[in-house]
Amino acid sequence: MAAQELEAVLSGQGYPVPAGGGCDWGPPEPREPARLRRNTCYVVLAVLFNEKSEVLMVQEAKRECYGAWYLPAGRMEPGETIVQAMRREVAEETGLQCQPRTLLAVEERGPGWIRFVFLAEPTGGALKTLQHADAESLQARWWDRESPSLSLRAADILPLVELASQYRASPRHPPGLPAELPCAFLCQRLLLACVGARDTLWVLLGTAGAPHLPLAVSSVAPSGLRRSLLLAVLELARRCLPPAQATIHVRGLLGLQHLGKEPGQSDGVCLNVVATVGEPSQRPWEAPPALQSTAFTWWKVEDGALRSKALCRLSAASFIPIQS
What we know:
Elements: H1 2-10, E1 42-48, E2 55-59, E3 69-70, E4 73-75, H2 82-94, E5 96-108, E6 114-125, E7 139-143, H3 157-169, E8 187-195, E9 201-206, E10 215-217, H4 230-240, E11 248-257, E12 270-277, E13 296-300, H5 304-315, E14 322-323
Parallel strand pairs: 1-6, 5-14, 8-12
Antiparallel strand pairs: 1-4, 2-3, 2-7, 5-6, 8-9, 8-10, 9-13, 11-12
Helix pairs in contact: 1-5
């Protein structure tokens, strides 16, 4: 089971989350499921380029930022998948149809706000003009990023445009889209790896039930809205490895899981987070650090192909960035 889960997560396919929200770390039961527009907000954003490497921009129609320019973006609606929401927002705001190329990054401010950033490609449609202005946007245009700057709604999109440009030139991680798997809660599945001498690899497993990659659940109660999602996986890791014993480095995401087609029942997201034990410059471990909780154990990955796949991803730092 653990080998199947590791293979699926490394491949970006995801792996089913227990229907009852069983976890190795998180708020006490009963846990409140994630409910879009009630206790959590998901935002989609897309970066698109044309053949001239110009980036697609939209002019805002909202009163609070009327006339300013931004990347096509907006809040997800109940019943949508993440990709469906992204394509809808691009079509409504720019007039263009698009095809996602990859999930580019995930930004989060706790359960109350998560933004999914995509690199996408235009596939048809007609660029929206002022004659077709509506409540979604005034117009759309291609921006060469060299002519006089547009009046931006916020500068937070500039690093995302640069990240997308870099990915087009040299992909940092394999193309990947959200896996359509149901999840009722906001979860973080932790792949915590310890790399040893002679390419030995140990992976942390939870021992409750069948051996599995540990799962942390984040609270969606109002008091937890500003609490970073990554704190949950760090607290889980520290439960078995205190900071004085080993340093934990969160490296990024191998992917994420969401379905959303059953509003109120599958609004949750599972982030598949990868982290490593120790400093990158540290000599390889001869044995993994001792654990202080019997709820976890180290699994030595013996399968050569699976171990090589994991070590390759780790050495190349081939992960989707997550920004808190």
